[in-house]
Design brief:
Layout lengths: L1 H8 L7 E3 L7 H14 L3 E6 L5 E10 L5 H14 L4 E5 L3 E6 L5 E3 L2 E3 L4 E6 L3 H7 L5 H6 L1 H5 L10 H23 L7 H23 L24 H4 L3 H15 L10 H4 L2 H12 L6 H4 L12 H13 L16 H11 L11 E3 L6 H17 L7 H11 E5 L2 H16 L4 H7 L10 E3 L13 E6 L9 H9 L9 H12 E12 H6 L3 H13 E8 L4 H4 L7 E8 L8 E4 L20 E4 L9 H7 L2 H13 L3 H7 L3 E4 L9 E2 L7 E3 L15 E2 L4 E2 L14 E5 L9 E4 L4 E2 L3 E5 L2 H12 L1 H10 L12 H5 L8 H17 L4 H11 L4 H20 L11 H18 L6 E7 L4 E8 L9 E3 L1 H17 L5 H4 L2 E4 L3 E7 L7 H22 L2
Parallel strand pairs: 3-4, 9-10, 9-12, 10-11, 12-13, 14-16, 20-25, 27-29
Antiparallel strand pairs: 1-2, 2-3, 4-5, 5-8, 6-7, 13-15, 14-15, 16-17, 18-26, 19-22, 20-21, 23-24, 23-26, 27-28, 28-31, 30-31
Helix pairs in contact: 7-8, 7-12, 7-14, 8-14, 14-18, 15-16, 16-18, 28-31, 29-33, 31-32, 34-37
């Protein structure tokens, strides 16, 4: 019956299915399938492939059972939820297919697991045609293109996934224990740091014991000998029974510490003194799910299976502990730990799963709780087992790999202790339960592999040289004393005291000449900040090292780290080699605004740019390549070289400019003269409006900063510019009365006619486009511009006629209280003397990029392309390619589209085509084309159509372009880019054949 289901879904061993019969599984598939089969008893897993066709992400678990058994099915679902990787579970009986949502937390009703909330649907397999129709939504193509998740976004809530619920439960437990202890012990008697360490140690130890207690082999043996817990308290049969007695509990802790050695069970200083019996009873109630507190959440505890929960999730629990504050009751639930799919992606760049084992030293220079080291260790063990064709691995070999390969440094002692704990824990996953008890001695890592050290200090770790250095260094603009000394002694440049930049220098020092470094950096300083020191840092860093890959995660800022202070970028680099002129792969993944964003990064070919090394000094290149194309770079270069920056015009015309005041609470200065003045606020601000009515009044006299050097900006006449956009436009107004405004605004004082000209241009799409493509803050870190970005905007020196016309437009708006956006845009295009195709690029960027960034999943960029959109694409594409090729061949385009998530563009050479034949609207014909093209790619081992999502296939007289059925892929800009790249491919092939 499973084979029948696979066929209906178009799933097989060549496109991501892993089962016992598949001899072509990747190393990762083998390991993951073996683990899941042993732990929850599934029969197959469907993995989503990456753009290269490599199965990477578990999507569906398949389990076949001989007959319908409600309890067995409910238990399968509970375990699948605990595993937490694949969002779907397909349970197949001889008569039915039951499809479960693994993102719905299980519940108990009358003592039994209730699986009805998680049951998506039940399909009758007796009626083959009807079953096939119902399964269409689960077709492989819908998974690979992401269409399934877009259509079912409402159904999958990450808040109910096992990692989120477990983290939330632990937050509650932690908070209550801290609160109860703090009620009886003051901060003078016990510091917060000591209290946190004690509570974290108790909870961490309890999770480990639960994990060991629930580990079972195929014969039902657990780690602990039969009757083990009764040694400490009769008639205890499990860990929670021992918690009834404090002395028994700590006797258990001490024995486990002695038995396992290593760093796994150490007691914290004063822990025995601080923890009381009532704390242990509270802990017992939490673990048993018997507490009334937040009962809906805590009732989940008995439904957790620590034998099944992924080891990397248990490791990240400790990272959560490390980051939480004393009272998080009112804080938002969010991602405090480095998401696993981010760790996995970065590790793929330096230590992929595939490949033979060889001893190598791997360092995380700021390891925190060790999440990168845990993943590195898992991969090294996997490589060793693959290389030695081993189904099991001994305790001795596990210890040897750990001691030889894994190293970490961190300033924080608790973080290092947690990292040691996590690494020791991951060893257990490779051993049989009885073997853990009988033979395992955890290695002592503290002081040998893991070091409480400043990375910039000299220490034992500093004596080694490493093959791989990977990690997420701190992002503060604050250097440690040792870091500052290191930078000064080595005469290195860093910007804004960014310690992450200091890490990037030191990592190169301890890396082998043949090694590789991968660091997650704040993208603002690493790519976008244009201060003098940041520019110098980038120049020297790019000169000294071979940068091979930069992955800019800025658009994922609020998805990856809900509480992070800024956006991220990863850089992969190595020691400089001679004459390396290869371009830098610059990757800027974009969210799909579906469930997929929490599990993987969808990287399109349009998200990858090859940046020549001779242009890396161009400070604008990283932002333009993030959202634009080479043609956008040309247009921005034209604007900046042809026209002077606004600042230069203002200086020449003796006009003053400054950001508004900061009220502040410290270092107050008094300015009584502004008391009672009109106060411009963001809430009441209106563009092109001079009316003073309803304005607030200044009712304070003390300021942190009040633009003392340019007070004229508060005087009539002055332009007030709001730094954040609204509905895709930047707003400003020219006031003919004195008024005060805060630092959300920028003011310009000067000749009224010129101010109105500037105001009109700043409202135009030209300004929006330029800011979108060049601002180091907007669409990167903050949704606003700063003073420098406004002042650097290239502005044409206007003629008398242009000033008069701008003033006419301004006064019409002011008089009619209605903005004529088309008139403003047309005027600005004429002032800049833009050609029609340049105007199209501006319109395209504002329409698609801005809309996509702000409206997200409901953006028109993600909508199905209209007839007009495809017609424009065809005309632009054909014209550019025809002209590029010298007009020698007739080029015609034909689109195959329907309800399928992909569109196929067939480009023919030498064929004439009438204008009405360029769209074939047939889902059946699209699917037929896709099957042929997909088979072609798979036979060439070039990935697959759906996963690559944006692919070109070249034949003798035809070229096929396959892209998602979304407007952003078939825009004017996309047509230009596709035509340029296809022409480049054709010429590269011609040159190769004629060498």
């Amino acid at each position: 019956m499973l084979e029948k289901i696979y066929k209906m879904l178009d799933i097989n061993c060549d496109n991501g299915l892993a089962d016992s019969m598949n001899k072509k599984m990747t190393m990762y598939q083998q390991q993951f399938f073996k683990m899941v089969k042993e732990k929850i008893g599934i029969d197959a897993i469907y993995f989503l492939r990456d753009a290269e066709g490599i199965p990477k992400i578990p999507l569906v678990y398949f389990a076949a059972i001989d007959n319908y058994n409600q309890k067995k099915i409910a238990e399968l679902y509970r375990l699948a939820w605990n595993l937490g990787e694949a969002p779907l579970l397909f349970v197949v009986t001889p008569e039915q297919l039951l499809i479960y949502n693994n993102y719905v937390a299980p519940q108990r009703v009358n003592g039994d697991i209730d699986d009805q909330d998680a049951l998506i649907e039940m399909i009758d397999l007796a009626n083959t045609l009807e079953a096939q129709r119902q399964l269409l939504k689960y077709h492989r193509l819908n998974f690979e293109t992401g269409e399934y998740w877009r259509n079912n976004e409402y159904r999958f809530d990450v808040k109910n996934r096992v990692d989120t619920t477990l983290m939330n439960n632990l937050r509650v437990m932690r908070r209550e224990l801290i609160h109860n202890i703090r009620k009886r012990i003051s901060i003078k008697e016990l510091s917060d740091e000591q209290l946190f360490s004690i509570v974290h140690a108790l909870l961490g130890r309890s999770i480990l014991i639960k994990y060991l207690e629930e580990r079972k082999d195929t014969e039902g043996n657990t780690v602990f000998p039969i009757g083990y817990f009764s040694k400490f308290k009769r008639p205890a049969s499990k860990y929670v029974d021992v918690l009834d007695d404090k002395e028994a509990t700590y006797s258990l802790f001490r024995e486990l510490s002695e038995h396992f050695h290593g760093d796994m069970f150490p007691l914290e200083d004063r822990e025995y003194e601080i923890i009381r019996q009532e704390d242990l009873i509270e802990l017992k109630n939490f673990i048993s799910g018997e507490t009334d507190m937040e009962s809906k959440q805590m009732a989940l505890w008995p439904l957790y299976s620590f034998n099944v929960i992924p080891i990397q999730l248990i490791s990240s629990i400790y990272e959560l502990f490390f980051h939480l504050k004393v009272d998080d009751k009112n804080s938002k639930v969010g991602t405090y730990y480095t998401p696993y799919h981010l760790v996995s992606m970065l590790m793929d760049e330096v230590l992929p799963w595939e490949g033979m084992y060889k001893d190598m030293k791997i360092l995380d220079p700021s390891c925190g709780s060790g999440i990168f080291l845990v993943e590195a260790y898992r991969r090294m063990v996997g490589k060793w087992m693959y290389t030695n064709d081993a189904k099991t691995i001994s305790n001795e070999q596990l210890v040897k790999i750990m001691q030889n390969c894994i190293f970490g440094v961190d300033l924080n002692g608790e973080a290092i202790r947690i990292a040691s704990f996590s690494l020791s824990l991951v060893m257990c996953d490779y051993l049989e339960p009885r073997s853990i008890w009988e033979t395992l001695e955890f290695p002592r890592l503290l002081g040998y592999n893991l070091f409480v050290n400043d990375f910039f200090d000299r220490g034992k770790f500093d004596e080694l040289r490493y093959d791989i250095i990977i990690g997420n260094p701190p992002w503060e603009s604050k250097l440690t004393e040792k870091a500052e000394k290191y930078i000064l002694e080595n005469k290195l440049i860093i910007g804004d005291k960014q310690i992450a930049q200091a890490f990037s220098w030191k990592a190169g020092e301890v890396c082998k000449d043949t090694g590789t470094i991968c660091l997650l950096m704040p993208s603002k300083g690493f790519l976008f900040n244009r201060s003098e020191k940041n520019l110098l840092y980038r120049k020297e860093f790019f000169d000294k090292y071979d940068i091979s890959i930069i992955i800019n995660y800025s658009v994922f800022r609020k998805i990856l780290f809900e509480h992070a202070s800024g956006p991220a970028a990863a850089v992969v680099y190595s020691i400089k080699s001679e004459n390396n002129r290869d371009p830098i792969f610059y990757c800027t993944p974009k969210p799909t605004f579906t469930l997929e964003d929490n599990r993987r990064f969808m990287i399109e070919p349009s998200d990858i740019n090859k940046i020549p090394r001779d242009v890396v000094d161009n400070s604008l290149i990283w932002k333009i390549a993030m959202w634009g194309t080479p043609r956008d770079l040309e247009l921005i270069n034209k604007l900046t070289t042809k026209y002077k920056p606004l600042e230069e015009m203002l200086i020449e015309k003796e006009m003053s400019f400054a950001e508004g005041f900061i009220k502040g609470t410290t270092k107050k200065k008094e300015f009584k003269e502004y008391f009672g003045w009109p106060l411009i606020t963001t809430k009441k601000f209106k563009p092109f409006n001079n009316v003073m009515q309803q304005q607030d009044k200044v009712n304070f006299t003390k300021f942190y900063r009040c633009t003392e050097k340019n007070k004229e900006v508060f005087r009539d006449p002055h332009l007030i510019f709001k730094q954040s956009p609204k509905n895709g436009r930047f707003l400003s107004t020219v006031l003919r009365y004195d008024a005060l405004f805060g630092n959300s605004f920028i003011g310009i004082h000067g000749e009224e006619n010129i101010l109105k000209y500037i105001s009109i241009i700043l409202y135009s799409k030209v300004f929006v486009y330029y800011s979108l493509m060049t601002s180091r803050r907007w669409l990167v870190e903050r949704d606003e511009l700063n003073v420098g970005e406004l002042l650097s905007f290239p502005l044409p020196e206007p003629s008398t006629e242009e000033v008069e016309y701008a003033n006419k437009i301004y006064e019409e708006i002011e008089g009619n209280n209605q903005i004529d956006e088309k008139k403003i845009d047309d005027f600005s295009y004429s002032v800049y003397k833009l050609k029609s195709y340049e105007i199209e690029f501006i319109e395209n960027a504002v329409s698609y990029v801005y809309d996509y960034f702000y409206i997200k999943g409901k953006s028109k960029a993600l909508s199905v392309p209209s007839f007009e959109t495809l017609k424009e694409y065809k005309e632009v594409f054909e014209k550019i390619l025809q002209n590029s090729l010298g007009g020698s061949d007739n080029i015609s385009c034909c689109f195959f589209k329907g309800t399928a998530p992909l569109v196929v563009l067939e480009i023919s050479f030498g064929n004439q085509q009438t204008n009405n034949e360029f769209i074939i609207d047939s889902t059946e014909k699209v699917n037929d084309k896709l099957k042929v093209l997909d088979a072609m790619l798979i036979s060439e081992e070039s990935g697959c159509v759906a996963v690559k999502r944006n692919v070109r296939i070249y034949q003798k007289n035809k070229i096929y372009v396959i892209k998602p059925n979304q407007s952003r892929y078939w825009s004017y800009s996309a047509a230009c880019k596709d035509a340029d790249e296809i022409y480049a491919d054709i010429m590269a092939t011609w040159r190769k054949n004629n060498e």
